């Protein structure tokens, strides 16, 4: 038997009381498109990110004296940017996946693809920044977490598109029944 936690029940109760419809949370005719693999990836990414951040700071402190001045500036800037991007990215991914909102999930994927992934690749493959084995390992794991969003976004967009097309057909059916009645 599955027994949800009281916190989860209270959260669902608050959401259903504040909504205009009685069956917003669960409706038999509404398909749930949230991606469990994406949600698991976001959850583990949320717990992995502090470990990544601490290892980055420690490795940066260790190799800081040996780096060229412009690489010192670049790596500190990347650390600050990645911290901000990761916080926003995880928020958008959670909201987009759990609430099945395509714009938030698209923002999650754009942040991942256009900002975070190139920064990770720069840190993985630029030998001039004196890559340490720990850095390489945590960057590979972070890159794998970043790649899981595409599959969920593609599935959600396809489902939303098909639901949009089906709604158009419902409108046509209503017009035909009205015309037949007159």
Characterization of the model:
The protein is mostly helical. The protein has a domain at 36-157. It has helices spanning 6-18, 36-63, 69-98, 102-125, 133-147, 149-181. Helix 3 (69-98) runs antiparallel to helix 4 (102-125), helix 4 (102-125) runs antiparallel to helix 5 and helix 4 runs antiparallel to helix 6. It starts with 5 loop residues before the first helix and ends with a helix. One of its GO terms (biological process) is non-motile cilium assembly. Its main location: membrane. Belongs to the TMEM17 family.
Structural class determined from secondary elements:
mainly alpha
Largest pleated sheet: none
Number of helices: 6
DSSP summary, beta strand count: 0
Distance between the termini: 54 Å
Percent helix range: over 70%
- Strand % is under 5%
Q: How big is the Rg?
A: 23 Å
Q: Give the topology string: H per helix, E per strand.
A: HHHHHH
Shape: elongated
Q: What's the pLDDT, averaged over the residues?
A: 81
Low-pLDDT residue spans? 5-9, 15-25
Summed up:
Helix content is 79%, strand content 0%.
Question: What's the helix and strand layout?
Answer:
Layout lengths: L5 H13 L17 H28 L5 H30 L3 H24 L7 H15 L1 H33 L1
Brief descriptors of the model:
182 residues; mainly alpha; 6 helices
């Amino acid at each position: 038997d599955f027994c949800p936690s009281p916190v989860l029940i209270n959260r669902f109760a608050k959401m259903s009381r504040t909504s205009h419809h009685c069956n917003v949370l669960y409706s038999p005719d509404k398909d749930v498109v949230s991606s469990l693999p994406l949600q698991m990836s976001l959850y583990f990414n949320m717990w992995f990110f502090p470990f990544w951040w601490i290892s980055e700071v420690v490795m940066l402190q260790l190799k800081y004296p040996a780096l060229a001045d412009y690489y010192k500036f670049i790596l500190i800037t990347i650390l600050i940017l990645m911290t901000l991007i990761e916080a926003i990215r995880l928020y958008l991914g959670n909201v987009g996946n759990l609430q099945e909102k395509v714009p938030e999930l698209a923002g999650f994927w754009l942040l991942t693809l256009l900002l975070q992934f190139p920064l990770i690749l720069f840190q993985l493959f630029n030998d001039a920044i004196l890559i340490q084995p720990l850095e390489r390992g945590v960057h590979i794991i972070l890159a794998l977490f970043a790649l899981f969003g595409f599959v969920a976004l593609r599935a959600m967009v396809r489902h939303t598109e098909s639901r949009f097309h089906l709604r158009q057909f419902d409108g046509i059916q209503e017009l035909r029944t009205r015309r037949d009645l007159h």
